[in-house]
Amino acid sequence: MADSVTVKLEGIDEFVAALRALPGVLRRRVVVGALRDGAREIQRIAKANAPVLKGPSRFRKAGTLRNAITVRTSKFARKRGEAGVFVGVRPLRGAREKKLGRRGATNPNDPFYWWFVELGTRPHVVKPRGGKVLAWGLGNKRGYARSVAHPGITGQKFLTRAAQSGGQQAINTAMRRVVPQIERLTVSRIKRLEREAGIAV
């Protein structure tokens, strides 16, 4: 069901080399800000690609999926002492769950279904959970069945397409943000070393 994603980016080696010029603490602080700026390019495209519900639905609210696409700091990178961010669909958890209600299929504020939309699903049989029949519909128009053969859905790849089309722009944006900061820090370090060595500046 999941596909691999390959995105070819130019300038990534120069970007990594520039980052290595920074001391650890500064690297994380400077880099996270730069990466966030770059990732917002992908976030913007993903939001534009994300489908929005057009008709009424009992347990869905228009824009829930699109509004949940965020840029977040990578906890895995942080555990390794590195800096990293990612663009993804923020789950309904923690304080947001307390505010917007318990997560699950019946909460219109929960975008749990995002990966169905992104990756698609295979044809499958839907059976009732905790009941004898399935029921669907709105108002007086209702249907019932013991099971339903779902045809599956085609993945819309709103995140994948955003990464592919916006990845290079994201790197360019991050480079524009981080390189001047590295240059300023380098000049500052040279001046400090000159002062410590007693060289007139």
List keywords for this structure.
single chain, 201 residues, alpha+beta, 2 domains, two-stranded antiparallel sheet, 7 helices
Structure overview:
The protein is α+β, with helices and mostly antiparallel strands and 201 residues long. It folds into 2 domains: 12-121 and 156-196, no CATH class; 122-152, no CATH class. It has 7 helices and 8 strands. The strands form 4 sheets. A two-stranded antiparallel ribbon has the order 1-2. The N and C termini lie far apart (62 Å).
Q: How far apart are the first and last residues' alpha carbons, in Å?
A: 62 Å
Shape: elongated
Helix-strand pattern:
HHHEHEHHEEEEEEH
Question: Percent helix among the residues?
Answer: 40-55%
Topology:
Elements: H1 12-20, H2 24-49, H3 64-67, E1 69-73, H4 75-79, E2 85-89, H5 94-100, H6 114-119, E3 120-121, E4 124-126, E5 134-138, E6 141-145, E7 148-150, E8 153-154, H7 158-196
Helix pairs in contact: 1-7, 2-7
